[in-house]
Amino acid sequence: MRNTAKITTAVLAAGALTLGLTACGADQDAASDTSGPLVVAASPVPHAEILNFVKDNLAEKAGLDLEVKEFTDYVTPNTATEDGSVGANYFQTQPYLDDFNKKNGTHIVSVVDVHLEPLGLYSHTVKKADELKSGATIAIPNDTVNEGRALQLLAANGLLTLKDGVGTAATPADITENPKKLTFKELEAAQTPRSLDDVDAAVVNGNYAIEADLKPAEDALVLEKAKDNPNSNLLAVKEGQEDDPRVKKLAKLLTSPEVKKFIEDTYAGSVLPSF
């Protein structure tokens, strides 16, 4: 499952990059034209919701023409940013971005950290993590960074032990102790909340948890800690576009007191400001 998913993702990414290169001249012209709207690729929740708050309440006063384009996967926003189809994206963490650039030859850079979506363990069958039975099946994201985060979350809560130093590159092969003999079902991150009726528990990214009407602050059996967490979600652009005045305006608005209050009031601890 893991290898198939990774190969599929790689093929899709390569195809998108090839298409981007085909229209390279036109895309570069669009990216360099700062007179038009800034088009930002974003996951629907909470990223697009936060951007639409900015668009509806703050952008006009700041002189920013903002257009929000929603994507439900973790590949297209980066390939679209690389080929100039969009001017920026807001959906990912720095570890994921670093891994994506390395594997796909893209040149996308962070502009500013905005928020943290704590990764959580959820279940329809148990109320506490220590109630998981021996041999329980846990669904985890199959992309490199989020799978590593999922395993680190389980390790931090005593469900397993990982090799020293593996960090977010951890895979099930790095498990050194597994007292409950847990088994893992590796799925695309978006599929993990949908798997809850078929597995004993699932580790779900915060944005997908919210979309599935889960409340991370209330429903998670265990939840990532916010303190010293390197997995803040960020605004990103193609290298060289950092000084685009539209990008600078958006970065300032996304880290404004108004957006901080919107995040705190709207998500009640399920999404946390990183500024």
UniProtKB/TrEMBL annotation:
Entry's Gene Ontology cellular component terms: membrane
Keywords, in A-Z order: Lipoprotein, Membrane, Palmitate, Signal
Record keyword Ribosomal protein present: no
Membrane topology: Lipid-anchor
UniProt entry tagged with the keyword Signal: yes
Pfam families documented for this protein: Lipoprotein_9
Signal peptide annotation: 1-25
Domain of life, per lineage: Bacteria
InterPro entries named among the record's database cross-references: Lipoprotein_NlpA
Residues with a covalently attached lipid (S-diacylglycerol cysteine): 24
Annotated compartments: Membrane
PANTHER family to which the protein is assigned, alphabetical: D-METHIONINE-BINDING LIPOPROTEIN METQ (PTHR30429), METHIONINE-BINDING LIPOPROTEIN METQ (PTHR30429:SF0)
Family under the similarity heading: Belongs to the nlpA lipoprotein family.
Stated name of the protein: Lipoprotein
Provenance organism: Streptomyces gancidicus BKS 13-15
